[in-house]
Amino acid sequence: MGANDLQQQTVQLHRPAKAAAQPAQGPWSIEAVQALLDKPLMDLLFEAQTVHRHHFPEGDIELATLLSVKTGGCPENCGYCPQSAEFDTGVKAQKLMEVDEVVRAAQAAKDAGATRFCMGAAWRAPKDRDVKKVAALVEAVKGLGLSTCATLGMLEPHQARQLKDAGLDYYNHNLDTAPEYYTDIVDTRTYQDRLDTLAAVRAAGISVCCGGIVGMGEQPVHRAGLIAQLANLDPYPESVPINSLVRVPGTPLADSEPIDPFDFVRMIAVARITMPKARVRLSAGRQQMGEAVQALCFMAGANSIFYGDKLLVTGNPDVEADVQLLRKLGVQARRTQEAQEGGA
Ligand code: SAM
Ligand code: DTB
Ligand code: SF4
Predict the structure, then answer these.
(1) pTM
(2) What integer pLDDT is reported at residue 305 of this predicted model?
(3) Residue 188 Cα, ligand 3 centroid: separation in angstroms?
(4) Residues with catalytic annotation?
(5) Ligand 3: which residue has its CA nearest to atom 6?
(6) Of 86, 118, 236, 289, whose CB has the highest number of CB atoms within 10 Å?
(7) For ligand 3, atom 2, which residue shows the shortest CA distance?
(8) How far apart are CA 188 and CA 176, in angstroms?
């Protein structure tokens, strides 16, 4: 197949479907979300794809690179996390990275085609002096023309405002699961703590990146409960990461039953339908997923992936493998603002 044929195929893939998209019908009850999750898969995929094409007619996929700027030694006990100091996972605690090191990584990510750079820190909550240092990182990364994202734990309103002033575009803070299952996963903080930080982020004018993890031994009703919580945030998050648990030896959840791949695809589809304008992020777990399941996730409305050989401390598909996958699917990567404005 020649380049022209591929272009042709890409254009066809992105042509909006004829069926009219249904508007999102919030507020969402758990039962209504559950009913979507229980639909026949092909019907659910059709509905999600229809909504997706209506809201994202360009059909591109955002490439976001993650960097752990402060690794390990975290005092929280999130049962999924290799960076908790309570679990013996072999992750060595490191101090906050310097600005020049982070800028080098961000530039490399941009050169490889990423448009968003996400900085993660294994903190329960940063101190004011930590926020000052991260603000300098945000400013430097923003200066490269990348969209910026940070995930640093719980934030106070004044800290959120400081990050906004530094140029932070998104703050990632996940609800992880339904409130009823949360205490089975972590008991060093509450669901309300998470909601309070999300409110502080929203009030500071930073876009909210908030999602969860599946494959942690939760029941179907907890998956529906997570989606209902996210979709009922007012407004719902601009960006919704759906992670499949990366089972790390040494963590309490290391032996969890993996989620059925079709159930994972269903979560993506229902996130798309209930939060139609959000970037739905096919997040952790892609390395264990296979190309066909990832393609189904894109079909279901996922339009952002973590791009780079590493997530925070665990692996991710190689950059080359992702470039090949997007090429095979005829999907375009999202372009930088710069490139869009320059018409490149
Ligand atoms: N410490 C901050 C916090 O918890 O908000 C930021 C870093 S934390 C590692 C960011 C998110 O990564 C968590 O909220 C969780 O949703 C996700 N995560 C952590 N470990 C994971 C794993 N093993 N598999 C999938 N997602 C994971
Ligand atoms: C999110 O929802 N997933 C990313 C990002 N936000 C920070 C983190 C995934 C972490 C996977 C396990 C690890 O490498 O630590
Ligand atoms: Fe700490 Fe965040 Fe990991 Fe929880 S998820 S242990 S808060 S780094």
Answers:
(1) 0.92
(2) 97
(3) 10
(4) 74, 78, 81, 118, 149, 209, 281
(5) 84
(6) 118
(7) 122
(8) 14
